Task: inverse folding
């Protein structure tokens, strides 16, 4: 059959935001793991949609590993940026990391699509995706297509909307 086009995706965001949980849910159910642990360095995962084959670099969000991210920017064709919507204290840290990403020479002048997941929407003190979008000043991103979805990675809610958006971009 026809081979699906492969797209390299970088999954970024602070530790504990839910990156690995999201990527795990996007894999076929027989490939999903039950116990998710904090990522060390990064893991490479794959999932497919009807038209594309995504290879995901699921990076660790821990402070000591965040300097690894930039080494993979060149090969990324899309970014998934995950935010813990209930982590009000660290929203400013998430914004700092996002701003550093957007200003990086390997990212700055490319029309890379960025999919944001305002994750953990199930938690009582979670902020809305509109609020998260405001706190991260996403309206200032004018040279890249971007989209934000509220998600609950534990139940898998909101993930398909995001993947549909990613799939609709031409790579
Ligand atoms: P690092 O690998 O350390 O960067 O973290 P990560 O972003 O990969 O987070 P991970 O997927 O390991 O999830 C961290 C914790 O959040 C785990 O206990 C998950 O079960 C939990 N979690 C992930 N998504 C959600 C969600 O949507 N809602 C709730 N309530 N918990 C979630
Ligand atoms: Mg992880």
Result:
């Amino acid at each position: 059959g026809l081979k699906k086009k492969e797209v390299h995706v970088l999954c970024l965001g602070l530790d504990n935001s839910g990156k690995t949980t999201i990527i795990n849910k996007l894999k076929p159910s027989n490939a999903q793991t039950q116990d998710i642990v904090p990522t060390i360095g990064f893991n490479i995962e794959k999932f497919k949609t009807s038209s594309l084959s995504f290879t995901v670099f699921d990076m660790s969000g821990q402070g000591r590993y965040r300097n690894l991210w930039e080494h993979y920017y060149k090969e990324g064709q899309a970014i998934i940026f995950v935010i813990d919507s209930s982590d009000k204290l660290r929203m400013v840290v998430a914004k700092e990391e996002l701003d550093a990403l957007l200003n990086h020479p390997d990212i700055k002048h490319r029309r890379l699509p960025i999919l944001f997941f305002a994750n953990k929407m199930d938690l009582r003190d979670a902020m809305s995706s509109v609020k998260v979008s405001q706190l991260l000043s996403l309206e200032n991103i004018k040279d890249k297509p971007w989209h934000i979805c509220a998600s609950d990675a534990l139940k898998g809610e909101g993930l398909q909307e995001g993947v549909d958006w990613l799939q609709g971009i031409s790579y």
User: Anything to note?
Assistant: The mean pLDDT is 97.
